[in-house]
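Appendix B. One record, verbatim.
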Amino acid sequence: MLRSWANLLTLLRLLIAPYLVWLILNEDWWLTALALAIAILSDIFDGKIARKMNQATAFGGLFDHATDALLVSSAVWALAQLGLINGFLWVLILLAFAQYTLDSKALSGQILRSSKLGRLNGIAYFALICVCVGCQCLLLQILNPLVSWAAWALVATSLLSMGDRLYSVVRLNA
């Protein structure tokens, strides 16, 4: 299963996650930015490679999304430990991913079904981390209140996305 180039790129991102947390907790912002850039590039190219090489699978999609959820939730957790963002978002990211996985029936081999808001949240999680790290690299702590507000906004949109998915499942089963 991990023998494809795409899945190896996803594995690289998974291996970067604990290193990224360590870098954030040690406030090594420039190396954090580099590790984050590598993780983002691997996320951009794993799906493209899988499709181009005709290696896209339900497992690969689940592995990619699970790795993204682990990477962003752990980075958000580390940023929260430093008081840069709220401590609720990382939990919601994991819960939203679990809900997304379960109601897509991805564990039984189905392809993940994303919602528009869920997709936007996924991008916004990465963007929040990048902006937060960038502010620390460039000594722009004056923007920390804006970053904190953005994290709270993501708490709200994550809850909205989860509520929308739950409503859709309930409506389908009614």
